[in-house]
Design a protein that fits this description.
The chain has about 400 residues and is α+β, with helices and mostly antiparallel strands. About 65% of the residues lie in helices and about 10% in strands.
Length: about 400
């Protein structure tokens, strides 16, 4: 039973319009119930002695006026006050008093600031006038004060209640706005700190790494301009020059991205057969499958596979012995990258940071990476998923 009551309560008070209709119906029902129970009149010696039935149409008129209290609170209160005054002339009823109390509360809560100030001033003047008038007519100060207290209860209490709720609501909205401003300021500070960090990284890359790469390319170019009788040395210089120029181009792209600009070119992917062949040849390796035969791959997988190949060939050239072998294939919705080269007789392979970065790259796209010796051969296996939308 309680659940059904809660459901109906939510339905009736779901929107502002429904809430207004519900409140008007509730006042009308309570007023009719009080009238049916014979509660009243408010004034024992009313100016006009009429049948109690006439309180009912005035109550219903007040309930109809309540339907427009949200859109026109000032006009609704004026009309409601007229109904209340007319009801007082025939003795007054609690139903009409409830209508006036609700309209006063609504104006204090939803009216403009100017209207609320005028309502407070008008309420104070009416209470004072009623008190003085009662004292003058009854020639009794205590009777005048009692009438003034009754007027205060009817007029001032709902006004004070509405302004209090309004003030609390405004304070809650102000606190919410301040919290939103603090959150926005924190986010802006975080973004500014991130931009500063990216700018600093871009400057460091440009001043240190990019400068060194440019120097390497220039020295290699200078070496190639001189006659070199050793063909192996010449090929090494050409590989150094090509690798440094490629790294410099990618470094500039990275710097532009860090500074929030548009890159001059997109990062190279494993599907770029020419770039893969040049990379493998530069490391004196051999490729077993032509990447040009690969279908269109997701951008993240395409670029990650090329980065894994770059780092794997670098490790092979740095630590391995003999030409590395590269194989790229598709199987079961995955891209398989296999790199093998004879292992060196020594066990020192550096800090291992390169292998950690390779594993992180593979995991970032949902793949896996295994690295280690297999029957005396240093082997790198990467398996990357390619299912999904291609980039």
């Amino acid at each position: 039973m309680q659940r059904w009551i809660e459901v109906w309560r939510r339905r009736l008070r779901g929107t502002s319009r429904r809430q207004v209709v519900t409140e008007a119906m509730a006042v009308a029902i309570v007023g009719l119930a009080l009238h049916g129970l014979g509660v009243g009149p408010v004034i024992s010696d009313a100016p006009f002695d009429v049948a109690p039935f006439w309180h009912v149409p005035l109550l219903l008129a007040g309930a109809l006026i309540m339907l427009g209290k949200r859109r026109h609170p000032v006009a609704a209160l004026g009309a409601g006050f007229v109904v209340f005054a007319a009801d007082l002339l025939i003795g007054g009823s609690l139903g009409a008093m409830l209508v006036l109390i609700d309209l006063l509360y609504t104006l204090a809560l939803h009216g403009s600031a100017r209207a609320v100030r005028r309502l407070i001033a008008l309420t104070a003047m009416i209470i004072a006038a009623v008190t003085v008038l009662g004292w003058a007519l009854l020639h009794d100060l205590r009777a005048g004060l009692l009438i003034g207290l009754q007027a205060f209860a009817v007029l001032a209490t709902p006004t004070w209640w509405g302004t209090s709720v309004r003030r609390q609501s405004e304070l809650a909205e102000l606190a919410s706005a301040r919290a939103a401003d603090r959150e926005r300021l924190t986010r802006m500070e975080h973004e500014e700190a991130l931009r500063d960090e990216r700018e600093r990284m871009a400057r460091d890359l440009h001043d240190a790494v990019a400068g060194n790469l440019s120097a390497i390319a220039l020295h290699a170019e200078a070496g190639l301009t001189r006659p070199v009788t050793d063909h192996g040395a010449r090929r090494a210089l050409e590989a150094v020059r090509a690798s440094s120029l490629s790294a410099l181009a990618e470094m500039r792209t990275m710097i532009r991205l860090l500074r929030g600009g548009t890159p001059e070119r997109s990062p190279t992917g494993i599907s770029d057969g020419r770039a893969v062949r040049e990379l493998v040849v530069a490391h004196h390796g051999a490729i077993c499958a032509d990447p040009a035969d690969l279908p269109q791959l997701p951008t993240a997988v395409d670029q990650t596979a090329f980065r894994l190949l770059q780092e794997g060939l670098t490790n092979a050239t740095k630590h391995g012995s003999g030409p590395p072998e590269v194989e790229v294939s598709l199987a079961g919705g995955h891209l398989d990258l296999l790199l093998r080269n004879p292992s060196p007789p020594r066990s020192d392979r550096g800090s291992g940071m390169g292998l950690e970065i390779m594993a992180e790259r593979a995991c970032a796209v949902g793949g896996s990476l295994t690295v280690g010796e297999d029957d005396g051969v240093w082997t790198v296996r990467a398996r990357l998923p390619i299912e999904g939308e291609a980039g």
